[in-house]
């Protein structure tokens, strides 16, 4: 199969991306390590995080002030210069996070803990309320800072920025990402 074009993927490439992984954008000592649920098929096809047109992650980062310009998924490595990174709870791409089984989500918590312990971000921000509740065994968790830490690191819970998540529009995502940004600057943090 031919390589995906620089700014898109064919239907066949997207269909063939099931189970593919997208490399982490990570370094030691980040301010925030964003943790998606898992890559979508489009992201798996092009090899970049939050790549499907319509995903609001990149816009929320910019509008909230976490980045000084709107980055594209193909510029994801530039996040490191902002003290930001990306990983996923479950590595393999699916058409929808709803395809993941509860056991798969729960099993993914331990590798994430090891990754957080190794890279020591100031905050790990998980993107997906339902997945977090299942993976971390916190059925009553709500959006925002969490009372528990993950391997000694603060945890912040944000909505899934997928365009499929109609519960949270861009303005609300930007506000919630902005609260995370303000939390980074809070005294004693």
List keywords for this structure.
alpha/beta, 189 residues
Element pattern in H and E: HEHHEHEHEEH
Radius of gyration over all CA atoms, rounded: 16 Å
| Overall helicity | 25-40%
Strand order of the largest sheet: 2-1-3-5-4
> Helix- and strand-based class?
alpha/beta
Tally the helices: 6
Q: What oligomeric state best describes the polypeptide chains here?
A: single chain
Could you describe the 3D structure shown?
- The chain is built from 6 helices and 5 strands, in the order H-E-H-H-E-H-E-H-E-E-H.
- The chain is of the alpha/beta class and 189 residues long.
- The chain starts with 10 loop residues before the first helix and ends with a helix.
Topology diagram in text:
Blueprint: H1 11-15, E1 32-36, H2 41-46, H3 57-63, E2 84-88, H4 102-119, E3 123-127, H5 129-135, E4 144-150, E5 153-158, H6 170-185
Parallel strand pairs: 1-2, 1-3, 3-5
Antiparallel strand pairs: 4-5
Helix pairs in contact: 3-6, 4-5
Summarize, please.
Helices cover 31% and strands 15% of the residues.
